[in-house]
Design goal:
Helix content: 25-40%
CATH topology of the largest domain: DHBP synthase
Shape: globular
Distance between the termini: 51 Å
Number of domains: 2
Bound molecules: threonylcarbamoyladenylate, magnesium ion
Order of helices and strands: EHEEHEHHEHEHEHEEEHEEHEEHEHE
Radius of gyration: 20 Å
Length: about 350
Amino acid sequence: MQTIIADMTNQIDEKEMAQAGKILKEGGLVAFPTETVYGLGANALDEQAAFKIYAAKGRPSDNPLIVHIARMEDLYKIVQTVPEEAVKLADKFWPGPLTMIFQKKEIVPYGTTGGLDTVAVRMPNHPVALKMIEAGGGYIAAPSANTSGRPSPTTAQHVADDMDGKIEMILDGGSVGIGVESTIVDLSTGVPTILRPGYINKAMLEEVVGQVEIDPTLLSADCKQRPKAPGMRYKHYAPKADMVIVEGEEENVISYINDRICEELKKGNCPGVIASDETRHRYCGGAVKSMGSRSDELSISRHLYAVLREFDEQQVSCIFSEAFETPNLGQAIMNRMVKAAGHQIIRV
Ligand code: TXA
Ligand code: MG
């Protein structure tokens, strides 16, 4: 299959957008930018189209997809009831990086929800995404547009690296703004519960709906319960090289990592280091990559997946990473980093 790449970085090309809509309505796949990561879209109400997503990604088909909508009124056509909290959250955060879980209506096929009676819905905040959803019929199922087991794509080039030849079209909207996937909140039972941390954090949600809980499996590595978002329990992305997160006072972290870099260099290896703009020049060797300035949390989240992809292309022997427990986005960033490191964290 020849994958068409449509450049919409500066403005939406109406002709190519109409073509994307046609592909989606005919059951094909179109990758598109959102404010979080690139998505791999298909008609959410067409079970066969949803199956194509699983095939292109190599993803287990019991891992449910998020349905993307462009208008609030469309929510009522696919879910049983819209709790009052959901209306308030949608008012405040949609379009935006928030996904909410509802009881589904029959019109949503089980192929889209991975066999669940609930459906995840989000209205993304990106002009290209919103236009494409409307052009494609209003309901677009989309996981992140990476091959299963690779970091989520934050540029159209990342999508092409994974999906070229497997999907009909890629809409290039440039680099994404946030870089980690949306916050998922379950509203289908009692107290709103965060199933996946993202840009919209607990404090922001609580300002709108009062008490919010966090799925306990997110808080501890050895929790015996199953995560409520099925995708959170799959073996997640792990870099090819062994990765360790080093936590502690900045000076201790730098000197610990420098000792380890020296050991690796003596063995003739090239270690990788994930640093920040403030610290990058303080490492004595190896492949040092900065996630950006610690004073700019969005820069950190935006660079995370790209940095991990770069290390996979370079032959590093292992990766040492600083921790990024930043005030607002820290939980979302560290959730992804800890998984990438397979929970290997050293305190110094
Ligand atoms: O930011 C995002 O959410 C991106 C962009 C493309 O919108 N999408 C995304 O999709 O991250 P994906 O498929 O990579 O992650 C969807 C997550 C999975 O962890 C899945 O298990 C969970 O949402 N999920 C979907 N439907 C669910 C449901 N009914 N109940 C619980 N979890 C659900
Ligand atoms: Mg994903």
